[in-house]
Design a protein that fits this description.
mainly alpha, 6 helices, rod-shaped
C-alpha cells in the first residue's frame, strides 16, 4: 500500500508540474504576443505620423507652386519676361526637388497627380508666354495672374486629392 501511495504522490506531483509548466508556457506566450502587438501598434503609429508629415509637406509644396501664390511670392528679377519665366520655372523645380522624397509615403496615383500639377503649372507659364506678346516681366506677371483667376488650378485639384487621401488614411 505504501508503494501505491508513493506512486500516487509522485504521479500527482508530476501532474502538478505538467499543469504548472503548461500554464506558465501559455502565460508567457500570451505576454509575448501582447508585447508584439503593442510594439506593432507603436510602429504603425510612428509610420502614420511620418506619412502625415509627408502629406503636410506635399500640401505645402502644392500651395507654394500654385500660380497665384508663386507669382505673388516671387518678384521679377529683371524687366525681361524670359528671365522671369525662367525664374518661376526654376522655383517650381527647386520646390519639387526639395519634396521629391515624399513620394515613398503616398500612393502612386497621388504622386502622379502631384507630378501632373507641377508639370501643368510649368506648361501654363510657358503657354502664357507664347500666347501673348508682352514685353516686360511685370506685364507677363499681370497676364498670368489675370489668366489664373478664372481657371481651375491644377495645384488645387491635386491638393483636394491629397486631402481626400489623408482623410481615408486617418479614418482607418
Amino acid at each position: 500500500m505504501d508503494f501505491l501511495e508513493n506512486n500516487f504522490k509522485w504521479f500527482f506531483a508530476f501532474l502538478a508540474l505538467v499543469i504548472i509548466y503548461k500554464f506558465l508556457k501559455d502565460y508567457l506566450s500570451y505576454q509575448n504576443k501582447n508585447k508584439f502587438l503593442s510594439r506593432n501598434d507603436s510602429i504603425k503609429s510612428d509610420i502614420l505620423k511620418v506619412k502625415l508629415q509627408a502629406y503636410e509637406r506635399l500640401a505645402l509644396f502644392l500651395e507654394r507652386i500654385s500660380l497665384t501664390n508663386l507669382l505673388t511670392r516671387v518678384p521679377p528679377i529683371s524687366t525681361k519676361k524670359e528671365d522671369y519665366q525662367y525664374l518661376l520655372i526654376q522655383t517650381i523645380e527647386q520646390e519639387f526637388e526639395h519634396n521629391m522624397l515624399q513620394q515613398i509615403y503616398v500612393s502612386e496615383e497621388c504622386w502622379n497627380i502631384i507630378l501632373t500639377a507641377k508639370n501643368s503649372n510649368i506648361q501654363y507659364i510657358r503657354n502664357c508666354d507664347t500666347s501673348n506678346n508682352t514685353l516686360t516681366a511685370d506685364k507677363f506677371r499681370e497676364l498670368v495672374l489675370t489668366m489664373t483667376i478664372n481657371d481651375t488650378s491644377s495645384s488645387g485639384v491635386a491638393l483636394s486629392y491629397l486631402k481626400n487621401e489623408v482623410s481615408k488614411l486617418t479614418s482607418l
